[in-house]
Amino acid sequence: MFSFLRQPYPLSELTLSKSLLHSVLFGAIIAFTLIVFQPFGSYNWHHPSKNPILAGYGVVAAVSVFLNFYAFRRMLPWLFREPAWSVGKEIVWNLAHFGTGGFLCTVYGSLAGVMPFSLDQILYMSFIAFLMGLVPAILLVMINYVYLLQKYRPLEPTGKKEAPAPEVSRPEENDLTLLAENGKDSLRLLARDLLFIEASDNYCTVFHVEDGKLQKALLRSSLSRLENQITHPAMLRCHRSYLVNLNRVQTVSGNAQGYKLHFEGTDQLVPVARSYSGRVRETFVAV
Hints:
Layout: H1 2-5, H2 16-37, H3 50-75, H4 87-112, H5 119-151, E1 155-157, E2 175-179, E3 186-190, E4 194-200, E5 203-210, E6 213-220, H6 223-227, E7 235-239, E8 242-245, E9 249-255, E10 258-263, E11 270-271, H7 277-283, E12 284-286
Antiparallel strand pairs: 1-12, 2-3, 4-5, 4-8, 5-6, 7-8, 9-10, 10-11
Helix pairs in contact: 2-3, 3-4, 4-5
């Protein structure tokens, strides 16, 4: 059980517009549930503004979702790092949302004059929210985890299994000239010798093979600038920080967070952003 909770899990990155949309939809569902089904004793509660007050809890739920799934992630970037994110962390963070919701519901109920603002009331409201969300939070994460494992199954080069690498194309052997931003520093190599390029801050590290040995060259340049200098069809921008030569990929491993590319001569794994996974699946076949 504990090993399952430590398994890698993707960290969802929602834009502001998508976060607002999700928050509004979630709040609308909560408001609809409270008004129509009136759970937790609200059926026996009578108030001249009952439905508007219950609808207000939907607004509170929407605010809580927005805080947890967008605002807090922007405020605490060091906490939300996908390489360290796991199934257990995803479940815990989803449940933490209900603690935030319980607190905000108590504040709202106190302002509306329908409940006292006290620690006991905060704990009670958080407990109710926790009970409502416990099973969905765990079940949805587990279902999505199994789905992602199937989606990102390990891949191998097309053709025979013993083939060392996929042949995306067979163009003429041509030189690549990668020019740094200062216009003076450059690296000249054959396209077939390039493994991948990694971007870090204002520099790029070019991993390539020379005389059968792995070499690294550092160029002061953005990855986009170097990408524009390369026209070879086997070169793919697979991540915001990586550009790879698909012809030099040995194998492709996968987990719930997506694909990882393996290259000969280095233990460094290159991640594939989920938006680029389709191109990788087109080039390789499932094991």
